[in-house]
Amino acid sequence: MSSYAPATMVDAHKLILHETGFEVSELSLDDIDDYVELVASAYRGEPSKQGWTTEADLLSGQRLDADMAREMLAEPDASMILVRSAEGQAVGSVYLREPVDGIAYLGVLAVSPLGQGQGVGSALMNLAEAWVIERWGAHSLRMSVINKRAELIAYYERRGYERTGEVEPFPYGDDRFGVPLVDDLEFVVLVKPLT
Fold it and tell me: What is the sign, positive or negative, of the torsion defined by CA atoms of 79, 90, 188, 13?
């Protein structure tokens, strides 16, 4: 363990990742290609089937592309966190948007199959929750998950996220987000109180 005393919970969660061989930074334009590849590895295609977060049986095509990632990065009310292995490989990321009425938004949580089972996802979630509290004063964190992802929804529920009863439509017809392989997709909204 390090003798460094972290000043904030964000620093503490970064330190936990560092001490297990991972480095945390805010995503930059130089990271876009690695980010797009990371998200694809976590969600789409054959490589994603090595991990448990795959959507490959529900959607084909891309999850996002470099232009979409640059647009996300340019949003003035958002932050994107990237986790790299000691070898420099992007293994985890999360997109966070500043609160509206105290409720921040978490999206595109991605952990590559190589990073799954090593605590990266849980550590990244802890970091994200601390980030929205400390940086933005959020009291809750909201996310939306595809309704067919029962295992993933159960994971978030174990972490304290609750279904709101609200659903959002899936963007059928917009292939930028992938090509649906089933016709009854929608997003389930989950919220976790943070204080």
Answer: negative
- pTM (2 d.p.): 0.86
What's the CA gap between 5 and 15, in Å, rounded?
A: 9
pLDDT at 49: 46
For 139, list phi and psi in degrees, rounded to 5: -105, -10
Residues 6+ apart with CB under 8 A from 39: 63, 64, 69, 93, 108, 110
Q: How far apart are CA 110 and CA 83, in angstroms?
A: 10
- Sign of the torsion angle spanned by Cα atoms 120, 122, 123, 125: positive
What's the pLDDT score for residue 159? 93
31 vs 180: CA distance, rounded Å: 28
pLDDT band at 48 (very low <50, low <70, confident <90, very high): very low
The two structure tokens encoding residue 123: 């550590």
